[in-house]
Write a structure and sequence with these properties.
Protein name: Pyridoxal phosphate homeostasis protein
Organism: Luteolibacter soli
Strand content: 15-25%
Pfam family, one: Ala_racemase_N
CATH superfamily: Alanine racemase
CATH architecture: Alpha-Beta Barrel
Largest sheet: 8 strands, parallel
Number of helices: 10
Helix content: 40-55%
Keywords: Pyridoxal phosphate
InterPro entries: Ala_racemase_N, PLP-binding_barrel, PyrdxlP_homeostasis
Strand order of the largest sheet: 7-6-5-4-3-2-1-8
Bound molecules: pyridoxal-5'-phosphate
Distance between the termini: 19 Å
Structural class: alpha/beta
Length: 228
């Protein structure tokens, strides 16, 4: 792992600097450490350096890590979510960043009620309208405002977006995501305080545009040897 504690501190410092440049309080932006593909030992090392929120994208990969790691870790689900995994995900993850359709949100609301859970969810928006990506289109999202306001057992925290793979252009997609959130807030009456945006390559731009949680993997744990 090398100096994971040092990388964590450096990352936190860069987030705080971006907050200052944006005129925001440094405590406003949470760091989600994306531990997918990395072993429980790496998570433990980050935990010992003070990190408490970790992101995983596959339920089967996460389960054995969750099993052996400290129980005060807050696990966030960030991957594609199939219905047949929804119950296990709701049981283990208090925060889900990757809710990509109204149908899935409705299903999670039902499952959460049945399981006695109240997960925080982010609605994933396909902000640039890319054919290769899932997620709500802006239009679908605004058309869903009424339905979203009626959920009982999921707490709709805000929006999540992964902009196109072009660091130069990322900032304007982050701004577009924030603007869409502002419109949905008006349409739905929901508070929608959360914006899950920014990864290793672009989290500073995301913070400048209002991100409240950055999801950082490789800048903390190193390069992944296989994609997840
Ligand atoms: C893997 C992943 C990340 C972290 O990506 P890095 O570029 O390694 O920081 C963030 N968000 C999601 C949804 C991911 O799948």
């Amino acid at each position: 792992m090398g100096d994971l504690a040092g990388r964590l501190a450096a990352l936190r410092g860069r987030i705080d600097d971006a907050c200052r440049r944006a005129g925001r309080e440094t405590g406003e932006v949470a760091l989600l450490a994306v531990s997918k593909t990395f072993p429980a030992e790496a998570v433990q090392e980050a935990y010992e350096a003070g990190q408490r929120c970790f992101g995983e994208s596959r339920q089967q990969e996460a389960a054995p890590k969750i099993e052996v790691l400290p129980t005060d870790i807050e696990w966030h689900f960030i991957g594609g979510l199939q219905r047949n995994k929804a119950r296990k995900v709701v049981a283990a993850f208090p925060v889900i960043h990757s809710v990509d359709s109204l149908r899935l949100a409705e299903y999670l609301d039902r499952v959460a009620g049945e399981e006695g859970k109240r997960p925080k969810i982010y609605l994933e928006v396909n902000i640039a309208g890319e054919a290769s990506k899932g997620g709500f289109s802006a239009k679908e999202l605004l058309a869903s405002a009424g339905a979203l306001a009626g959920f009982r057992d999921v707490e709709i925290t805000g929006l999540m977006a992964i902009p196109p793979d072009d660091a130069e252009a990322a900032r304007r997609w982050f701004a577009a995501t924030r603007e869409l959130r502002d419109r949905l807030r008006v349409e739905s009456g929901l508070a929608l305080t959360g914006l899950s945006m920014g990864m290793s390559a672009d989290f500073e731009d995301a913070v400048l545009e209002g991100s409240t949680v950055v999801r950082v993997g490789s800048a903390l744990f190193g390069y992944r040897s296989y994609p997840a």
